[in-house]
Amino acid sequence: MNEYILPSAKQARFRNTAYQAPIVYDAIKLSDNQKHLGAGFKYHVATYGCQANVRDGEVISGILENMGYTFTNELKDADVIILNTCAIRENAEKKILGTIGYLKSFKRLNPDMIIGLCGCIPQQEQMVKMIIDKYPVVELIFGTHNIPSLPTLLENVVTNKERNVEVFSTLGSIYEDLPSVRQFKHKAFVNIMDGCDKFCTYCIVPYTRGQQRSRRLEDILKEVNFLKNEGYKEITLLGQNVNAYGKDLAEGYTFSDLLEKVSDTGLKRIRFTTSHPWDFDDKMIDIIAKRENLMPFIHLPLQSGNDEILKLMGRRYTAKEYKELFNKIKSKIKDVAISTDIIVGFPNETEEQFSDTLDMVEFCKYDNAYSFIFSSREGTPAATMKDQISIKEKKERLQRLNERLGYYSKLNNKKWEGKIVEVLVDGYSKTNPKIMSGYTPQQKLVNFSYDNAEIGAIIYVEITQGMKNSLNGKQVHLGKEDHE
Ligand code: 5AD
Ligand code: SF4
């Protein structure tokens, strides 16, 4: 009988400031059997949640393809299905548990089908125990730190027909040279770090992804140069908190050093996410303002506009400090677009405290925003706060907030009407082949009619209409498009 390796809530909380994460190069070495295990079989990876999960999903696909599996989009045809999960809010978790229930019927038709679960859900001690107990159909479980073990775990499940579980709650390592099947051929995610040490009181991420670990600058640059040589036009540097990049490295690099070096590669479009307002320094703003290939788009999570709530959230900035930073970014970076995340209904948030958040929205007039109702996550400090506010009240607040956010995103989008913008073409509209879509430097989605555009090219579009969530336009030619 194979022994389960389970996560520990207590260990997941632990941090060691002197920790230097081990770097594992060439992390995936397949045995001969593993190289052929998937021959003639199909896989599907279903990814939920943030971009870090999307990137992990690409690596999991890469590993499975190296093992001989081929991709299928049809769940019922898959021999291996991996659910790459998110635990940020309860409804994300519920959706995934519902999906497992739905997959049971496929497993009845194909009893050899292997259903795997990875990502943030199994990183939680109570959740993994519940899944082991209640969902026998899930035979393969591995955590965010255990992706390199996938070949061995899968091989065990296939050959011994028994469940394998490996979820570490370590501070974490850095894995290099992982295979991957990237989603696109023209834009890519590049992880620059994993984990988070901020411990905002509502957030489960520091527990599910471990201590902050930055990749070495040289390793990131190697990947960026590789992507550039492959013809990629855009990369997004990923981290839970990119502004804190390098703080855990002995070399003393900062995020602005990294931005400068990545910009020097000459890659056309460089983005990054997510920025915590706390670590955002002037040097970063200056370099983004100066360099043309650093895109003028910043995701700057606010969470709340009220100082007491911000304090309870452990955000370590005040509304005034956020505003100052916001103004500095707006005044120094030309045509910058700013988006945000906001949580309503943090335990005991009063109407007055909520109205401070609304005031902040009136002040910042965000280009785009993601808004959420607070969701209690077991093991986080906020989960222990007794809450008196009804869900009805919280839903009403969310609606009022969304109305204002929608008003400003439309207003900002309308400002682009009549202007000519650069668009990196992503693909065709699902409903109309005469329409293509792509993003502007400010990360605005544009749907446009075209006469000569190809996926992956940067072209010019004249904006004809600005709507709440996107822009409409038509392709124009200025004679300097990059495919001409
Ligand atoms: N409840 C609601 N929203 C949350 N977020 C993170 N944790 C929670 C939670 N427990 C939101 C934050 C964060 C975004 C990724 O998800 O706004 O910025
Ligand atoms: Fe969660 Fe805060 Fe870390 Fe973001 S910075 S992942 S909200 S703990």
Polypeptide structure, described:
This protein is of the alpha/beta class. The chain folds into three domains: 9-166, Rossmann fold, CATH 3.40.50.12160; 174-414, tm_1862 like domain (pyruvate-formate lyase- activating enzyme, Alpha-Beta Horseshoe); 420-476, OB fold (Dihydrolipoamide Acetyltransferase, E2P), CATH 2.40.50.140. The chain is 34% helix and 21% strand. The protein is built from 14 helices and 21 strands. It has helices at residues 9-13, 32-36, 51-66, 90-109, 125-134, 150-160, 205-209, 217-229, 255-264, 282-290, 307-313, 319-332, 351-364, 391-414; strands at residues 23-24, 42-47, 70-71, 80-85, 114-119, 138-142, 164-166, 174-175, 187-191, 193-194, 213-214, 234-238, 269-273, 297-299, 337-344, 368-373, 420-428, 435-439, 445-449, 458-466, 471-476. The chain has a six-stranded parallel sheet, with helices on both faces. A five-stranded mixed barrel has the order 17-18-19-21-20. Strands 9-12-13 form a three-stranded parallel sheet, sandwiched between helices. Strand 20 and strand 21 (471-476) form a beta hairpin. Helix 9 (255-264) packs parallel to helix 10 and helix 13 (351-364) runs parallel beside helix 14. The longest helix is centred in the last third of the chain and has 24 residues, at 391-414. It starts with 8 loop residues before the first helix and ends in an 8-residue tail after the last strand. The structure holds 5'-deoxyadenosine and iron/sulfur cluster (SF4). 5'-deoxyadenosine (5AD) binds at residues 88-89, 202-203, 301, 303, 341, 343, 372, 374-375, 377.
